[in-house]
Amino acid sequence: AMLRLRLLTWDVKNTLLRLRQPVGESYAAEAWAHGVRVEPEALSRSFREAYRAQSQRFPNYGRGQGLSSQQWWVDVVKQTFRLSGVHEDRVLTLIAENLYHDFCSARNWEVLPGASETLSQCCQRGFHMGVVSNFDNRLENILSQCNLRHHFEFILTSEDVGFAKPDGRIFKKALRLSGVPPELAAHIGDDYTRDYKAARAMGMHSFLLQAAGQGTEPEVPPEHILPMLSHLLALIEK
After folding, report:
1. By the 8 A CB rule, do 177 and 129 touch?
2. Which residues make beta-bridge pairs with 206?
3. What is the pLDDT of residues 122-156, one digit of tens each?
4. What range does the domain containing 179 cover?
5. 37 and 11 in one domain?
6. pLDDT digit string (tens) for 170-212?
7. Which of 85, 107, 129 is the last residue of a domain?
8. Least packed by Cβ within 10 Å: which of 35, 79, 199, 230?
């Protein structure tokens, strides 16, 4: 029987968009433009450490602690370079501010295979569509630059809403905006806890994007797994 759905909500990072290259490569190129040599691999490792520490100390881009997300990111970038042995503050500030703006553009992001076509088909079928993403407020601009913004009636980021997935309140806001009850809504994302489980806890349907060969969580029935985005409509209409 075909699922009766009226609303589809979408995660973005690694669901619709992905980084064109590892973070360390982008950071190393920007540093090099300022005459600073750092290995991309070292920067990638330092970035993971700096990002994790900052996320623990200031969750959701410091939204509840009076930080702007721009300041949050500038601090992450500077700390990434410090952990990699670069300490000259004036250069770090320049690098960090340039990178903050760079990651707002299609230069650093690419659309995942099948994403544009799938979103277009879903719009043609008349689904209400929105984004529910743990992202800062650059997201709307990034989606515009990557030519995906027009598919969505609303863009909810954790920074704007003040709650990050798996907190159900960000999904509740999406349901309220579209006026659709949870049993007529489905969320699509690549993270078991933040996307699949969180949406289901709100009474929504959910599909987990998971490339073949990735280990699946035992609790996810095969008809909820998307090996590729292009499989979505077949699963909904089956």
Report:
1. no
2. 187
3. 999 999 999 999 999 999 999 999 999 999 999 99
4. 7-16+112-234
5. no
6. 999 999 999 999 999 999 999 999 999 999 999 999 999 997 6
7. 107
8. 35
